[in-house]
Each structure stands twice: as C-alpha cells, then as structure tokens.
Write a structure and sequence with these properties.
The chain folds into 2 domains: 217 residues, HUPs (Rossmann fold, 3-Layer(aba) Sandwich), CATH 3.40.50; 74 residues, Uridine Diphospho-n-acetylenolpyruvylglucosamine Reductase, domain 3 (2-Layer Sandwich), CATH 3.30.465. It has a 6-stranded mixed β-sheet, sandwiched between helices. Strands 7-8-11-10-9 form a 5-stranded antiparallel β-sheet. The longest helix has 30 residues. It has 334 residues and is of the alpha/beta class. Helix 1 crosses helix 2 and helix 9 crosses helix 11.
C-alpha cells in the first residue's frame, strides 16, 4: 500500500486564482504593481501574486487607494497595507481627493476616475511594467448589463479588456475569467482578512442594484450561467471591435484630409462603406480630432449628410460642427 501523501492538498479556489495569475505573469518581464482595496477580489489577487511572482522572478508590490469617502477609510487602507505585508508584498497607501461628480456622472464615476488616475500614477512612480487589477467575471457581466441599460455601442458592451495599454501603462486583469465566489472562497481558505466595502450595499449605485436585483432575477428566470454568457458576449464584441478598428485604420488614410480648423471625409468613399463601418468612421474621426464621443442619434444625423443629402445646413455637435461641402463631409471646431 502506498504511503499517504503528507502534503496538504491545495484549495481548489486558491489553485484557480494562482493559475490565472500565473498565466498573466508569464507575459510580463519586469516589476508589477497590484491594486489592493482589502476586499476579497483584490486580496485574493494579491495573495496569488505574492505566491507566483517570486517563482517567475518578478518583483511585485501593492498600492492601496484611500478615497477618503467613508469615516475610518485611513484605518481600512492601513489594514490592507498590513495584509499585503503579511503576504510578503511591499505596499503603501495613497490618499486621493475625489472631485465633485460631473454632469451626467455620479459619485461612483468620480471615485473611479480618481482611483484610476492614482493607480496609473503609482504604477509609473514604481517603474512597474504592468498594473494588475482584480476585476472578476461577475464584474464583467455587470459592466455588459450597464452598457445595455445605457444603450451603449459594441465597444462599450465589450466590457473590460484583460490586457490593455492605458496612458502608457499596461493593465492586466487576470481574474476576468474567475467568479467572485471563487475569490471569496480563496480568501477563506487562506485565512485572509476581507474588508466588506459598505458601498457594495449602497443602492444609490447602479452596479449595486444590478448585482443585488437584476442578476438574481436573470439567474432565476433564465437559468444559471447568465454571468458566463454575458462575459462570453463581451469577449465576442471585443473581437468584433478590434476587427472594425483595423478596418477603420486601413480605410481612413485614403478618405480623410485635414482642412482649415478641422478635418474632412470624402463623401463618395464614406457612402461606399456599409453603415456599421460608416458610422464608426464618423465617430472615430470626431473623437480623434475633437476628443468628444457622439451619441447614436448624433451619428445617424451626420450620416444623413452622406446618404440622404437634401441641402441640409450644418449640424452642431459637442465641440464641433459637421457640414456637407460638395463631395466632402467637413468637421470644424465650434
């Protein structure tokens, strides 16, 4: 009879997260920084990085962003830093000032913007070649539903990318294929002290309402696996968006020219493209030249200057004006 294996078996949830992190780290060749809040998702990520990074020969550290939006937030940040130290990761906290919500935004968006800026700054200051964030498959599914509720296009419904460059910093999300329940199970198995963010129960936030109300109803009425289906949809839409982006890059050089105070597109060339590509070219040109995003209705109104020309006058858009001038569709600063 074989002797029993004296080694304790690895918890399946911990193993799944380590495997996901191992795959991400295999694409990295320098120091990494982990965004840590102290919640289950980021704590499970930090623990896996602390285990896998030394094996991959990578230096790793963590940063905790303190928004200062709740009483005792500095204490929560200090506990997260201490948890990182217990895992063997060097860590520090950064206090940020959250700006008042902008028109059309809200406190959640304002906090997210402040956190994003602070994380990117911390990654640059640390000389990190990659910033690791702990968004999960469930976060991805919620993002898709938020995009649907807002009538967003395919690019928005594509959700979060597992690997992207933002302001010169590479952002990796190793846990986009991992359920939130797995991160909680991994923390429990490893005895990690999880912080429960009260904002995750605050029903003022759309994401919280989707998490508490919409997803359970979808699961109950349509069957299990809704989050996985939504995440798969986001993967497919990101692939489609990437293909369209390549087509736009190939097309745009031949049909766009700069004009005084703006840019112009050849009407015959634009009209020759299918509507999906035509509309994307219009949005891309306006976003690239004037830094604004057109709504669906605004895009269709501009497109009618190409396909349904009846002598219409200029169209006022955010930050610019669109006008048909002969065989050109011109966009000029307003």
């Amino acid at each position: 009879m074989d002797a029993p294996d004296p080694r304790p078996s690895l918890d399946p949830a911990t193993a799944e997260i380590r495997r996901a992190v191992r795959g991400a780290l295999a694409t990295v060749d320098g120091p990494i920084l982990v965004g840590l809040s102290g919640g289950a998702d980021s704590l499970a990520l930090a623990a896996a990085v602390a285990f896998e990074a030394p094996k991959a020969g990578l230096a790793a550290r963590a940063v905790v962003i303190d928004h200062g939006l709740q009483p005792g937030s500095d204490t929560v940040a200090a506990r997260a830093v201490a948890a990182a130290h217990q895992l063997g990761l060097d860590a520090h906290a950064v206090r940020v000032q959250v700006a008042p919500p902008t028109e059309g935004g809200g406190p959640e968006a304002a906090a997210r913007d402040a956190r994003r800026a602070a994380l990117l700054d911390a990654a640059r200051d640390a000389g990190a070649v990659a910033l690791l964030l702990a968004h999960t498959l469930d976060d991805q599914a919620e993002t898709v539903l938020i995009g649907l509720a807002r009538g967003s296009g395919a690019a928005s419904l594509g959700g979060m990318e597992p690997d992207r460059i933002e302001e010169g910093t590479r952002i990796l999300r190793p846990l986009l294929g991992v359920h939130r329940a797995i991160t909680r199970a991994a923390c429990a198995a490893q005895g990690l002290p999880v912080w429960e963010d009260p904002h995750n129960l605050d029903r003022r936030f759309l994401r919280v309402r989707i998490r508490q109300d919409v997803m359970p109803v979808l699961e109950a009425e349509l069957g299990p696996g809704i989050a996985d289906a939504l995440a798969r949809t986001s993967d497919q839409l990101r692939e489609d968006a990437a293909a369209f982006a390549d087509m736009i890059d190939e097309t745009i050089e031949d049909i766009v020219e700069h004009v005084e105070a703006g840019i112009a597109i050849s009407v015959p060339a634009l009209a020759a493209n299918p509507p999906a590509l035509r509309h994307r070219i219009i949005r891309h040109v306006v976003a690239s030249e004037f830094g604004v995003s057109l709504t669906r209705s605004q895009t269709l109104e501009v497109a009618r200057l190409v396909t349904d020309w009846r002598g219409q006058g200029p169209i006022d858009l955010p930050g610019c004006r669109a006008q048909r001038i002969g065989a050109r569709l011109a966009f000029t600063a307003s």
